[in-house]
Amino acid sequence: MSSAVELLLPFILLIGVMLLMTRSAKNKQRQAMEMRNSMEPGTGVRTIGGLYAMVVEVREDAVLLESEDGSQLLFAKNAIGAVLEPEEYERILNGDDGYDAEDAPVVPDDASSLTGTDDERDASDERRIGLEKDGDAEGTPKPEGTDSQDAPSTGTEDTKSPGSARDGENGSKP
């Protein structure tokens, strides 16, 4: 009995998720249809192509729109992307972006005004960071026994270049 439930549980979950998704899609379709049915002459709309226009006439499956220049265009109802509030439609047609001059963000003309001047640098910026290996930097003492000039030559030294040296089991470069 338990194995049958375990076997059916994924299928039950899958069906539940599918039902939720179709319900959500139907809600969106219903809202879009209500929005399109709320159009009446004098309403401002935006088409799915981005055209802003005023509704002149509503037909069964089509809408006659008048653009800002006075031309009339016939669109399918499905081509209407949004029905706009009168204030929003007027704001868009007048080119008002919704900002007052005082509220507008201040944008500098060049990048130099975004950063401080050279005089304002922290003292920590003055320090140099040494990227050399231990013993290679000037003034840094080398560990004893690592200076190849001081070591006696045995004649069996590896004559490979330092870049070809390999270490580890995988033969990776250090």
Automatic annotation (TrEMBL):
Quote the biased-composition stretches of kind Polar residues, using this chain's numbering: 146-156
**Recorded superkingdom:** Bacteria
Q: Where in the cell is it found?
A: Cell membrane
Q: Which GO terms describe its biological process?
A: protein transport
Q: Which UniProt keywords apply?
A: Cell membrane, Membrane, Protein transport, Translocation, Transmembrane, Transmembrane helix, Transport
Keyword Transferase assigned to the entry: answer is no
Membrane-related topology note = Single-pass membrane protein
* Family matches, as NCBIfam families: yajC (TIGR00739)
The family database entries (InterPro entries) matched by this protein are listed as: Preprotein_translocase_YajC (IPR003849)
Name of the molecule in the record: Preprotein translocase subunit YajC
Region of interest (Disordered), ranges: 91-174
Main subcellular location: membrane
Q: Where is the composition biased (Basic and acidic residues)?
A: 124-145
Q: Which family does it belong to?
A: Belongs to the YajC family.
Name of the gene this protein is made from: yajC
**Any one cellular component term from GO for this entry?**
plasma membrane
